[in-house]
Amino acid sequence: MDLIPVHHGFVFDSLVILFQVFGVLALCLTRLFAGPRWVERGQLAFVVAVVGLGIAGAFCGHQDSEFGLFAGLTMTTLLIGMTVGGGRDSSESQAVWIAPEGTATS
């Protein structure tokens, strides 16, 4: 008799979905926000999401669930999304545009 009336495969499948959403949010946080504080938080969340997807996907594969394949596909897509593109380096300073002084002559 189970103490918890939930099938174990359902828990692992739900964890895969949770880490997929968490990984996409971390990728958006890293790519869309310019502040170094948000980039560092997004990168940490990204690492947690990818490791979580790997572990949850392994447990899904052990339970013969198709969510293990979805976890692997999501990990691949997230890694490609993180490495490709014109993301900013967190150590770069923000550019400030200042209008030239004086009047413009035509």
Largest sheet at a glance? none
Instruction: Write down the secondary-structure element order.
Output: HHH
Radius of gyration of CA atoms, rounded to a whole number? 21 Å
Strand content: under 5%
- How much helix, percentage-wise, in residues? 55-70%
Principal-axis shape: elongated
Q: How many helices in DSSP terms?
A: 3
Uncertain regions: pLDDT < 50 for 5+ in a row? none
Distance between the termini: 87 Å
Work out the number of β strands.
Answer: 0
Provide tags for this entry.
mainly alpha; 106 residues; 3 helices
Summarize the structure.
The protein has 106 residues and is an all-alpha fold.
Explained architecture:
By secondary structure, the protein is mainly α. Helix content is 65%, strand content 0%. It contains three helices and no strands. The protein has helices at 8-32, 36-62, 67-83. Helix 1 runs antiparallel to helix 2, helix 1 (8-32) runs parallel beside helix 3 and helix 2 packs antiparallel against helix 3. The model has no long low-confidence stretch (mean pLDDT 79).
Write the layout of secondary structure elements.
Blueprint lengths: L7 H25 L3 H27 L4 H17 L23
